Amino acid sequence: MSRRLLVEAGAVETRLALTENGAAAEFHVRPAGERGLLGEIRLGRITDSAPEMGAFFVDIGHATPAFLKKKDAGEAREGALVVAEVIREPLSGKSARISARSPAALAAAPLAAGRTAPALLRPAPPFAALLARARGVSALLVAGGEAAAALRAHLPGLAVEVAVGGADLFAREGLADDFAESLRPALPLGPTGRLTLDETEALTAIDIDGGGLSPRAANETAAPLAAREIRRRNLSGQIVIDFIGDAPAIAAGRAALARALAPDPLKPDLAKGDLGGLVLVTRRREGESLQRSLTVPCPVSTGRWTSAAHLAADVLRRAESLARHQPGRPLLARAPADALALLESRADVWRGLPLTLEVAAFPSREVAVMVRP
Question: Where are the transmembrane segments (predicted)?
Fold first, then answer.
């Protein structure tokens, strides 16, 4: 299988798309320049043990102690110093998980000589480099010369091509519609049905509305679509899929789901049996979901809304694309006030664009960029 990683390194956010045989398989969004914690090498000290969990807690200099399973601790004991790699970032209030037995941690042991814990021994690689290694990609296409140079340093031997043209790499590579689709709460299913995905703090619920399809046909059609979106959206934790119809129809949907989940590199676990058509999938957490990467808690009600950073990045992508096709024409961008405030604070990144900013009159979290009349 041919795997390719597209990296759009913008001034505000970095968008990544993994393609398999030319089709979009995964989307990820990270703040520009953020390396995160995954892959960091730290010198820490074991401060406490949790025998009931078979684990230690380790002070590695983060806000909360890291979680070290005893099977990943080697010969370490309470009070001992350990050189460890962060193998799971702290998410949703959970501590980072570390390993003292990973190849990277073992290789970095000499760096701890003479150091006092806690200490950072080696910063995390760029997320794109970690993803490229984990997925076994054969080539990278990168929009952004500095990002390409950094990835070449971390991925020697891999083909890293610099994209030529505007900032919207997804649009140029034909992935913009796929990306937009994986942000929608509902997708069409059959002639009149739909697949609804509702991501909450506790779990993700996926509902099947077969429309004009028979229950079996609806389940067998929905299962691969659900599996595709679970991976594209990087959904994790508990995922409940509500299949419809009688027992044979539910069993057919479950079998189709098992086949569709099989290629997922995170190896989701499909629980045995079902409860009235409810089928449980558990998928390992690997960073934030696509939705949570682009949203923040809404300050005026429950739920989440699109972050100022993502809106600002969207303005820049649209403005650069429009300026490329309409050279010399003055541009106007309308966006929510918080997104414009972020852009105004980063005027250096769009100084070359003939762009005027204006607070949007519409109440929704949307942006518009146009040629000024």
Answer: none
H or E element that contains 169: helix 169-172
pTM: 0.91
Q: How far apart are CA 6 and CA 261, in angstroms?
A: 23
The DSSP string of 291-333 is HHHHEEE-SSSSSEEE-HHHHHHHHHHHHHHHHHHSTT--EEE
Same domain, 134 and 15: yes
Half-sphere exposure of 101 (CA within 13 A, CB side): 9
Tens-digit pLDDT profile for residues 249-271: 999 999 999 999 999 999 999 99
Buried b (16+ CB within 10 A) or exposed e, 158-179: bebeebeebbbbbbbbebeebb
Domain containing 241: what range? 186-283
* 132 and 172 share one domain: yes
211 shares its domain with 272 = yes
Kindly tell me the burial class for residue 144, based on how many C-beta atoms sit within 10 Å of its own C-beta (0-12, 13-18, 19 or more).
Answer: buried
Q: Please indicate, yes or no, whether residues 245 and 362 belong to a single structural domain of this protein.
A: no
Q: Pairing mode, if any, of strands 237-242 and 204-209?
A: parallel
Handedness of CA 56, 60, 66, 72 (dihedral sign): negative
